[in-house]
Known about the structure:
By secondary structure, the protein is α/β, with parallel strands linked by helices. The chain contains ten helices and 16 strands.
Amino acid sequence: MRIFKTWHGLEPxxxxxxxxxxxxxxxxxxxxxxxxxxxxxxGPDAPLGxxxxxxxxxxxxxxxxxxxxxxxxxxxxHRMEKLxxxxxxxxxxxxxxxxxxxxxxxxxxxxxxxxxSHVVVGRDFCFGKGRSGTAADLAELGQSLGFGVTxxxxxxxxxxxxxxxxxxxxxxxxxxxxxxxxxxQWHRIEGEVLHGDKRGRDLGFPTANMGLSGLxxxxxxxxxxxxxxxxxxxxxxxxxxxxxxxxxxxxxxIPNIETFLFDFEGDLYGAEVSVALIDFLRPEMKFDxxxxxIDQMDEDCTRAKEILAAx
Length: 311
């Protein structure tokens, strides 16, 4: 998959894709349905592409809002590649793009810049200055500018619309399986393994520590997880248990996720790891002593192994 971070001056071979367009936060089942429609219009001369925006427009318009993203740009790109996307256009969302009228965006970005052959959007898609353009407007503009437009119906689950908002709520409530049902995959937290305080090693539970900056925070607590090590000498899939939160036993700390991999030995510092949240085991707790913490961690790991063995 090739990633383009501009719509200006692209070579002819980088233009002409059949694209799905949107923010695709989480790449949930509704997003996947939009991508599948774009795939139907793809071919040898119109490869499957995605148009998305980076940073997310909400980060530009509401910079002081709490972190809300389900995945960072790298995790989204990994998921797109697994879905067979050939070209990912991460358009830089800035003031100039935000100020474009719907007609200017369709003409300058879609038709002239990217030369799209077909565009698929969800029925609730809005674009252009002040979100004034609708999916129906895009269809009319495409007809005049020479590219096709398909408007996808929203996808529901048991009568409830699948949305990034509903997935965030499930994670906030500590319901990762409900989130996974809407996502069509386990919710994953991806990033580089960082150096921490190394307390886990001293307790007999060495952990891979990863930051959560910019991401929506699931319910703090302990989870049964399945982790994919994506780089370094230990590439592979491992079962484990992870603590997500602020580690109150050791004072107040910045939220992170600390993952203990079962039956693993090695150094993961600097490796890229993707941690899938499978089941919520218990809320985050403050312990009065280290022996009490260790006993609880033993119990957590036993429960996590039972849950993961049943998958």
